[in-house]
## 1
Amino acid sequence: MTTHPIDEHVHELGMPAFDQRIADAVARSVELGGDKQTTLKAKDLKTDQEVRWCPGCGDYVILNAVQSFLPSLGIAREDMVIVSGIGCSSRFPYYMNTYGMHSIHGRAPAIATGLAASRPDLSVWVVTGDGDALSIGGNHLIHTLRRNVNLTILLFNNRIYGLTKGQYSPTSELGKVTKSTPMGSLDHPFNPVSLALGADATFVGRAMDSDRKGLTDVLRQAAEHQGTALVEIYQNCNIFNDGAFELLKDPLTGTQWSIPLVHGEKIVFGPDGASCVVADGWGGLRVAETNQVDEAQIVVHDAHREDPAYAFALSRLSHQDLRYTPMGVFRSVAKPTYDAMMTDQLEDARSGQPADLDRLLHGSDTWTVEA
Amino acid sequence: MTGTTSETTPQTQASAPGGLVKDVVTLDRVVIRLAGDSGDGMQLTGNRFTDETASLGNDVATLPNFPAEIRAPTGTLPGVSSFQLHFADHDIMTPGDAPDVLVAMNPAALKANLADLPGGGLLIVDSDEFTARNLAKVGYAENPLEDGSLDGWQLVAVPLTSMTTDALTDSGLGKKEAERSKNMFTLGLLSWMYHRPTEGTIRFLERQFKRKPEIAAANIAAFRAGFNYGETTEAFAVSYEIKPAPMAPGTYRNISGNQALAYGLVAAGVRSGLPVFLGAYPITPASDVLHELSKHKAFGVRTYQAEDEIAGIGAALGASFGGALGVTTTSGPGVALKSETVGLAVMTELPLVIVDVQRGGPSTGLPTKTEQSDLLQAMFGRNGEAPVPVVAPRSPADCFDAAIEAARIALTYRTPVFLLSDGYLANGAEPWSVPDTGSLPDLRVEFATEPNGTDAAGDPVFLPYLRDAETLARPWAVPGTKGLQHRIGGLEKADGTGNISYDPANHDHMTRIRQAKVDGIAASLPPTEVDDPDGDAKVLVIGWGSTYGPIGAACRRIRRSGRSIAQVHLRHVNPLPADLGEIIRSYDRVVCPEMNLGQLSLLLRAEYLVDVHSHTQVRGLPFRAAELAAVLQDVIDSTGPEVPS
C-alpha cells in the first residue's frame, strides 16, 4: 500500500486519522491565538449583533442569565456550540459569542446529536421553544432524550406561537382563544416535563425566566449532567400571551401555587409551609395540608431515583392553569451517554484488526489477471 | 442450448467426467435466471453462483429482482423472487435481455418467468413442487410438466426437493429443515453444469453457519449432492464451459453497487483524513449501505440509525459542522423528507453527501425495483434557488469512484452533493479491478485556523463567508477552533460576515454566488469522453446512471450492423460538463434513453436548445439492449443516409 501523507502523520502521533485533523486545526488555532481562555466574563459571550426580540420579552432575561452563568462552567467559548431550530427563542445563537447554528424548525436536536456524537469534546446546547420542540420537532426531542446524547436542551415555553404572531401552541391550555382558534382551542396540551420523563430522560428540570437564582441553579445542574438534560423555562411573551405565568410569578400567589423541589428535602410549600406532597396510595402523589398529615408521610425529594415514575408523578401534580407547579430538578440520574458508547465502539473496533483500506477493498475472494 | 440471444455457435467436445461419457460444450456467454419463492433463497443462490463465476475469470453482470414483501404467501405469483446473471468469455455490459436457462423452483416461478424464456431454452424445474395444490394457487388447470404445453422448450423436470431430503437423511435435520437446502442442491447442479469452482461456496457456507455446524454440514452435503447428481444423471448429457474473459491485468473481486458505494465512502474518509459520519434511516434499496458502513468503525466511520429521514440528514449536517464528512443515505421518498435540510446545507455551505438509491415512484412506488426518476427532485426539489451538484455512477463497481467524486465535490466546494445510484446498481454485481489505494484522489482540505479579515476598527476577525477566489468555497472552521466562533443558519447571510441580512442587493448577490459556485464545478471536470469509434456518426446517444450498460450494449449491436453511433455517458448531471454543448452540436441528432419520462432530456433541451429525442421506459427493470438498439437504429435510419463503415 502506498502510504498516504495523512497516514504517515497519523502514525507518528499514534492517533487515529479521523479525529487527528480536527485536533490539529484546534491546536494550530491555539498556537496562533494563545491558550484557550476558560475564565470568561458575561461580556465575552456577547456578540456584535443587535438583539432583536420584542422589548420586554422574557428571552432577554434568559439570555442575560445564561451569559452570566456560563463563565462559571470554565469552558472556553470556542468549545461551546448552540444549535437552535426556528422561532423567537431560536434566534438565541446569534447573540452568543460561541459556535452556533440556527437551523430548521424542529430539527435542532437531530443536528446537535450528530455534532455531539462525533465531537464529545464540545459542550453542545440546544435552544428551542414549545412549538419547535413539541410540535414540529416532537419526534426528534423524544428520541434524543431516550438516547441520552450529551446535550443540554433549553426549552423556552411561552405557551404560544410568537414568531408567526399568536396561534396556540402544543402547551396552550385547552380552550385558548387565539387568532387560529377564535372559539377556543380543542387540543389537550402537553406537559413538557411529563413528556420528557415518559421518554425516560435522565435529567429534567423546570425554571422561571424571571427567577435568576432558580434558573441559574437548574442550568448549572443541567450543564454538569452527563447525557441529555432538558430544562423547561417558563418564558413570558409580552406581546401574544402576556402574563401567562403570572400566577407563579406574583409574590402572593406564586408562593401558594409553586412547589420548589430541593433534592434531599421534604416537599413542603405554600405560605408558612402549609402544603406538602404525600403519596396518594395508588402509586402517585398528591398535595396535602401539612398539618393534616404525619411528618413522616411527607415525601422527601429524590431526584436520583432510578424509576422515572416518581418524577412523573411529581410532574402530574400541576394543572393546566399552573396551580401546584413543581419548579427545580425533577430527575437527575446517571446513565451511559450515547456519544461515549459510540466512542467506545470505535475504540473497540480499532483495537482489533487495524484499519487497512487495501485489505478492505480486496476482501476475501480475489483473483488476479496476469499481464 | 443456444437461446435466441446467443451469438456464436457452440463447440462440442467429448469428455468423461465421473466415468460417464458426457459432452462438454464451449459457450461464449450464458444468461441464467433462477426463480423461486421469496423463501427459497434464490438471491443467496444467485450471489453464490456469481461469486463462483467471477472468481473463474468470466465477466459477469447480475439482475436481482424480488418483491417488496418479505414473505408473500408461499407459492403465489407475488411471492416470486428471481436472480438473473449473465456471464461470458468477453466483456459484457448487461445482465442479458432474456435468459438462456430458467430454473423454476415452483409453478409460480414458472408462470411468472416462462414468457421471458425464448423458445428452445433450457428449463429446469423442481417437479416435487408441481402438486395439485401449488398448481391451483397460480391457476394452472393442468400440470404443465405433463400436458405438453412446455414442448417448445428443453424441459428437464428434476425432483430437487426430494433428492435434497434424501441426501440429508443422516443429517439429523427434520424434513422441513432439510428441504430448505434445496437451493444449495440446485447450486451444486448448476456448478457442475457450468464447471464452476466449488471451494468458495463451501468456505462461504462454513463461514455463514459458523455457529450452526449441523446446518453448514447439511448445506454443504446438499451442494455436493447436487453436483454429483449432475455428474451421474442421464438427465443432463452435456455440461458447459465458458472460458475466462480477457481482462486488463490486475486484481479483481466481485462487488455489488451498494457495497462499492460504501467502500467509496470509507475510502473518501481515508483520503480526506476526516471521520465519516453516516446519518440514515432504513429504506429499500439503500439500507445495505448503512449495514456495510456500520462494519467499518475501525476506519473512524460513525453510523447513526436515526428516528427518521430528517434526523438522519440533520445529524449528518451537524457532524459536518463539527468537521466530519457527513453522509446520508436514502431512496426517493426519503429525499422528499430531507429536502429542507438539503436547503440548509446549501445555505450554510457545509460538505454533505446525499446518497439516493433510486427506486420506482412516485410515493412508495416500487420499493425493490429500479428507476431514474429522482433526477429532477435532486436538481430542483427544494424551496428557493438551491443549486446542488448531482453525480451518478454508471455500473455497480463504478459506485466506488462516483462516491469518491461526490465527496471530492462536497469537500472542495463546501456543498451538499447528490449521488444518484439506483436499485439495479445497488443490488447488481460485477467484477471490479481493485484500485491501488495510493492512486485514489487526494481529498484533503484545510480547516480554517486563524482570522481571515479585519473589522472596522482594524482588528482581526473571522469572516465565515469570505470565499476562495477559485472555488468560491467558504472557509470551514470547526468548533473548538479558537477565535473563529461564528454563527451559521438558514437565514440569508451577509456576504463575508455571514450575519443575518435582509438587504435586497445582498440577497441577489448571494443567490447568484451560490449558483456560480456550483456552476464553477464544471471547470474541475475532465473533458467529456465521446465513444465514437468510427468517427462519422451522425447520431449521439446520451445517458446517465445505470443505463450505461444497456446503452453501451445497444451501441455495439448498432456498430456490428455496420452503422455508426456515438455515445456519451454523463458522470455529472449538475453542473453539466463545459464541453457538452459543443459535443451535442457536432451531431445531427441526440437520443436520450432514460428510465423515467424524460428528465435529462428536459434538462438538455433547456440548457442547449437542442431537439433531444427522448426514449423512456419505467418498467422497474433495466432497458433491454435489443429493444434499445432497435430504437437507436430507427433514429439513425431516419436521420439520413450514411456511408457504411
## 2
Amino acid sequence: MAAIGPQVCLAVRQINKSFGDRTILREVSFSLAEGEILGLIGPNGAGKTTLFNIISGWQKPASGSLVFFGQETTTWPPERLSRAGLARTFQVPQIFPEMTALENVLLGAWLKGKPLPSFKQAHVEADYCLSLVGLMDKRHTRARDLPLPQQRLLELARALATGPRLLLLDEIAAGFSQSALQRLTAGLLKLRDQGLTLLLTDHLFILMEAMADRVLALDRGEIIAQGPPSSLIHHPEVVSAYLGARSGSEAEGAA
Amino acid sequence: MSDDITSSPLLVVQHLSVSQPAAPVLVDLSFTCCPHQIVAIVGIEGAGKTTLLKTIGGLRRAQAGHIFFAGEPVEALPSWEMVHRGVIYVPEGMRVFHGMTVLENLEVGAYLVRSQLKARLDQVCQIFPELKDRLQAPAGILSGGQQRMVTLARGLMSSPRLLMLDEPFMGLSPKLVERFSNSFRDLVQDGVTLLISGQLIQRVINLAERAYVLEKGRITLSGTGPHLLQDPHLQEIILPM
C-alpha cells in the first residue's frame, strides 16, 4: 500500500456539551494526526478540561462523535479507551495518595499489552517510566508526600506505563520551574519522536512554542483560532480573550 | 488597617528550622516582611517554599527558631489563632469545598469577620467578577481556573493582614495572571501585606518589592526585583528556554 501521509489519530466531530443551561462546548471539530503535538489554549472556563473529559471517556457529549484510530469511541468508558491506547493526566493529579510512587505506576503498567504483563514485566516497565520522568529516586515515597509538580510527573509516568498512542496532558506543567519545564519538554519531544501523539493544554505559552506543531484556541466553548504557536500569539481574538496585551513581551512568555 | 508603613516589620522569621523524618526541609532561615509590601519567596520545586508558608501559618511546627508577627512570638500558635490574627495561608492548586456553593465557600473564609461579610463579598466580586454570577453554583462544578479563583477569594474574605499565596498564578490564563498581578498591588494599597511563593521566578520577582531565593531549605539570595534578576546565580536557576 502506498504511503499517503500520517494516519489520523483522533477525529473530533461537532462535539456539543451543556451543563444545565450553560453551553460548555459548541460544535467543536478538529483532527489530530499520528505523531502530531496539538496544543489547546483558552481562558479559564473556556471548556478545555470538559473537552479532555469527553475525549477520554469521563464525560459524554450531548452530540457529536469521536473516532480514535478509525474506531468510533464516543460512548467508550475511560478504561476501554485506556486499553486502546488513550491515556491522560488530570489538572488535579488523580494519584493514589497512600500508595508509593512505584505502586501508582505499576497500576498503569499492568494495563499494558495483551496478554497482560507479568508482575516482573510490569515492574520493569514501571521503573522505566519512573526514570523517564526523573522520579526513580522517589519510587518508594508515598505519593501524597511528593510536592505537587512531582505528583504531576508521577501521573505522567502512570499514563506512560499504559503504553499510550495518544496522551492527553491537562496542565501538566502548572507549578513547574523553568528547569523542570525544560526537562519535561525534552522528554516529551523524545517520546513524540518515538511515535507518541500528544494533545496538551497549558497556560504556559512557552510550552506551546517549544512543543506544539499546531495550537487550537478555545473561548466560551468554540474554536476561535488555530495555527502554529507563532501565528496565534498576535491573533487579535486570542490576545483579547486569553493572552492579554502584555503577554508577548515577557521572557516567561504567556506564563 | 493598623499596620503603619513606618513601623517595624510585620513578620520576622529568625533561624527557622523545620525537619521531616527523612531530611531537613528548612535550615536556619531568617527574613523579614515589612507592612504594605509584596515579598516573594522563589525557588524550584522541593526548595521548601510551601513548608515555609505552612509553618508561618501554624500548619507545621518548627524544630528551632522563632516567628514574630506584629511583634509577638507566634511559632507555637495553632493555625486558627493565626487566622484570627490575620495571617492567612492560601494553598496551591484548587482547594474548594466541592459540595458547597461558591458563596458558602466564601462565607467560610469570612467566618471570623462575619460583620464584614457583605463588604468583603463586594470586594472579592470586584476582583473576581467571574464568580459573581456563579455564587449559587456548587464549587465542584466550576472549571479548574474558577476553582483557583474561589481558593484565592476565600483567603481574601477573611480580611487578612498578612496574605500568604502559594503559587497564586498556577493554572491561570496569561490574561488573568496580568489582572491578578494588578489586583495584588491594589490589595497592598488597601493595607494588606503579601507573601507570595512561586516557581515562575521572573513573574513573582517582578511583582515584589523584595524577594528571597530559597534553595534546599536555605535562603541563598535576596534583594529587590531588578537587582536580583541580574544576579548570575539566579540566571542559572531561571534557565530561560
